[in-house]
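Predict the structure of Ribonuclease VapC.
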Amino acid sequence: MPLPAKTSPLVADERPKRGILDTSVVIDLDQLEAHALPIEVAVTALTMAELAAGPHAATDSNERARRQDRLQRTEAAFDPLPFNAEAARAYGRIYAAVLSVGRKARGTRAVDLMIAAIACSVGLPLYTRNPGDFAALGDLVEIIAI
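Done. Here is the predicted structure for Ribonuclease VapC.
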């Protein structure tokens, strides 16, 4: 599998070499065209945490099994990027940017913003199915909607 805010459509020739997939992309990975992704993809430890919680949140056994399979395949394919000291500093800037436009930076949004902070700290674009979640980030993180 290939392998670290502005929203931009991509043409195959313009694909970035590297990028981080947020949880929404990992969940839909089997449904996406390869040309929509960077050549090398990475995931974060926070995406792994969200995927690990997924089977426990499922209300039926088929969905639970599907989520468990996705978690196991992702664990086998990726060595996740950590939320480290650099990401923590980037999170402070991202938090401030979100507050400055009157949006919430806590609660369920916090994990998305922490994933963006990891992307910011390593200088990689963040691929997402939910670009609106990252609308306030301005030039801190390149957001690529797919």
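The beta strands are 18-21, 40-42, 126-128, 143-145.
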